[in-house]
Every structure is written in C-alpha cells, then in structure tokens.
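User:
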Amino acid sequence: MEILKAKFIIILTILALPAVAQVNQDALQEAFSKSYVHEKDGDFSAAMDELKKVFDESSYEMNLRLGWLNYNAGLFDESVIFYSTALKLKPYSEEARFGLILPKAALGKWDDVVAIYDKILEINPQNTVALYRLGLVYYGRKNYAKAEPLFKKVVDLYPFGYDGLLMLGWTSYFLGNNNQAKVLFNKVKLFNPDDASANEGLELIK
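Assistant: Predicted structure:
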C-alpha cells in the first residue's frame, strides 16, 4: 500500500511540473516586460528591481540584462559582475564580451578592454566590430602600427565601408604612407563627396 501511495505522489509531482514551469515562465516574461517599460522611462533602478524579483543566478539572460541596466545606471562595478557571470555561463558569447567592454571602458580599464577584444577575435577573427573598435583603441593611443592591420582587415572585408576606409586612411597618413592615404581618402569621397575628414586628410598630403 505504501509503495502505491509513493508512486501516486511521484506521478502527481511529474504532472504538476509543466504547470509550475509555465507559471515561472509567465513571471519571467512579465518581469522582463516591465523592466523594458521602466528602462524606456529612464528608471533603471526600477527596471532592475523587476528582474530581481525573479532573479536566477544561473540565467544567462538575466545576468546579461542586469549588466546592461547597471551600466546605464552608472553602477559600473556591478555591471562588470553581471556581465562576467553571463560570460561564465556562456563562455563563447560575443554579446556578453561586448557588454563587458562597456563598464570596463567606463572604469578606464583599457588593458582589460584590449584583452576582451583580443579574445573575441581569437574566437571569431572576422568580427569586424571588434576589429574596428580595437583599431580605434590603438589609434587613440597613437599606436598606428597596431591599428593598421586591424583597419586593413576591416577594409578587406568591407572594401567600400566608410568607417574602415577613413580610419585606414588616417592611420596610413600617420605612418607616413601618403600615397596609400591619398587613395583611401579619395575612396571615402566616392562614398561621401563632401566628407570633411577626408578633405582635411587630402589637404595635409598636398
């Protein structure tokens, strides 16, 4: 009799699982929905509070979203924690790495930023966003020798892309390669004939 009773309880528990899962999913969707409304109103604290009501530390999506909301609220250290947790849950995630770059940059941890971009490119060497942004970091540091191959790869992948052409043009100019810079600036002008930056570069080369 006890065996039958135990089996009956197990069956009832199994049957109840889909209903519990549905309730949890409904609560999760409602929390995310309300958080988007608060974010739109600029109330990042309220947006975070909605998610914290149903927070699950093993949820990639929650950690990613809380990383974003904390960043927008100016809570950069907290943002790093949530994005880092998301990355641990999904080690190959590019979006979590791009997210983590935001608070790291805001905290001025540029060596960390470079390391994160390097990891993205290790996983996906053709990621033009990472290539371009890492190029900008090196360009900003006036390390044109490191910036050049990154911008060049962007241009190789997008030969008529404005941003890549312009930055490779300026990088070439600062490396003393005026002939290449001139060619690139003129290509930029094919994209935008009145481009002020390209025109400035061409004037400097004269």
